[in-house]
Amino acid sequence: MPTVFNSPAELAGSVGKALGASDWITIDQKRINTFADATGDHQWIHVDPERAAAGPFGACIAHGYLTLSLVNMFLPQIVEVRGIRMGVNYGTDKVRFPMPVKVGSRIRGAGELVAAEPTKDGAVQATIRVTVEIEGTDRPACVVDTISRFYPE
Asked: 41-65, pLDDT tens digit by residue?
């Protein structure tokens, strides 16, 4: 269940708080191959299981940008802002990929509200740090500060 805010204004009172985590998903070879086809990145560490098994990671790994793109799927499971006429993905700040995601791994996103500020056009701009966790490991796959703008009704 996502953390629910009944209005954008409520975000300011929760800066610094954990927002919870999304469901776990399994990163399979089909998802990796589909991402490779969509982006044209067919590097062997992603799409050649035989060669990757003998490579530095011992298996195929997900593209870093595949992992990052899944944050868009995790965010609605982490946070819901009600009382808005529109929400806009405004961008990201600092993105890091500390650990590769091996094929067959399960990952999820965990969120923390790190900032919430009013904008000149009447929205509230929220920065949510999403840490993409890999089940069974201490190091995250990705850490990104997402920036969203929520326009009240």
From this structure: 999 999 999 999 999 999 999 999 9
The tokens for 136 are 């069974």
- Measure the CA–CA gap between 106 and 104, rounded to whole angstroms: 7
d(C-alpha 3, C-alpha 152), whole Å: 18
Q: Which residue has tokens 């204004």?
A: 9
Domain-embedded: residue 90: yes
Phi, psi of 61 (to 5 degrees): -125, 150
Tokens of 27: 């990163």
What's the structural domain count of the chain?
Answer: 1
- The pLDDT tens digits for 83-120 are 999 999 999 999 999 999 999 999 999 999 999 999 99
